[in-house]
Amino acid sequence: MARNAEDLLRLVRELTERGVAVEFVKNKLTFTGGASDPMATLMLTMLAGFAAFERDLIRERLREAISLAKGEGGLQGSQACTEARGSQRATRASARGHSEGRSGSRLWNQP
C-alpha cells in the first residue's frame, strides 16, 4: 500500500481527510474522517515502523550475502546469459544435423 512508514501515514491521513474510511482487517484498525482513535493511530505508526525496520534488515542481509558470494566466486553472471548461450549452442548443433536428444543434453552440461 505504501513504500515506507511515512508514506503510509500520509496516505491514511489524506484518505481520511477526504472522508474515506480506511480499514486494516488483519490488524483490526479502522480510520475514518471523524474523530480519530489515538490507540489505532499509535498501532498503525508502530506497525509501519516495524515493517520498515524489517525491510531494512532484509536489504542489509541481502547485501551481506551478495558480498560474501562475490568474495567466494559464487556470482559469475546471470542465469539468463548462461541459458541464452546454451540455446545458441543447441541451435547451431541442430543446424549441423545433430538430434535434440543426447547432443542437446551435452550442450546443457547435463548427464
Count the DSSP helices.
4
Q: Roughly what is the average pLDDT, rounded to an integer?
A: 77
Shape: elongated
- How many separate domains? 2
Q: What kind of oligomer do you see?
A: single chain
* Strand portion: 5-15%
Strand count: 2
Low-confidence stretches: none
Helix content: 55-70%
Cα distance, first to last residue?
47 Å
Q: In which order are the strands of the major sheet placed?
A: 1-2
Structure description:
There is one protein chain. The chain is mainly alpha-helical. It has 2 domains: 5-71, no CATH class; 77-111. Helix content is 63%, strand content 5%. It is built from 4 helices and 2 strands; from the N terminus they run αββααα. The chain has a two-stranded antiparallel ribbon with strand order 1-2. A hairpin with a 4-residue loop joins strand 1 and strand 2 (29-31). The longest helix has 34 residues, at 38-71. The chain is elongated and about 75 Å long. The model has no long low-confidence stretch (mean pLDDT 77).
